Amino acid sequence: MPAPNPDGITIEKRPNGWGVLVDTFMLAGRTQRMQRAKRILRNLAADGWSCRGCGGPVPEYRRADARYCCEGCRKRDARSRRKVRKAQPGA
Q: Do residues 46 and 38 touch, judged by C-beta distance below 8 A?
């Protein structure tokens, strides 16, 4: 699946919260961009859309359901989860 268009959505920090601006066109993916913007806004409101691995911000060009800022953070987190699972007694 191709990555989302990085120029289609702009994220802004505002004094009273977050703002997500969407570039919409007549018939080209308007519904999908609006849904992606809503999901990003939910992520920002919940935890600032931060990486579960390193705690840094997730770049806006990543998918709206992304939990990690890069592939490396995702792999490091998966390795650490496997180590914890092996260390537990009875596993």
A: no
* Weakest-pLDDT range from 19-23, 44-48, 52-56: 19-23
Burial of 49 (0-12, 13-18, 19+ CB in 10 A): buried
Higher-pLDDT residue of 39 and 7 is 39
- In the predicted structure, residue 68 carries a pLDDT above the cut 90: yes
Dist CA 58 CA 69 (whole Å): 4
E strands in the chain: 9-14, 17-22
Sorted by where each begins, the domain ranges of the chain are 9-87
By the 8 A CB rule, do 31 and 16 touch? no
Instruction: With H, G, I as helix, E, B as strand and everything else as coil, classify residue 1.
Output: coil
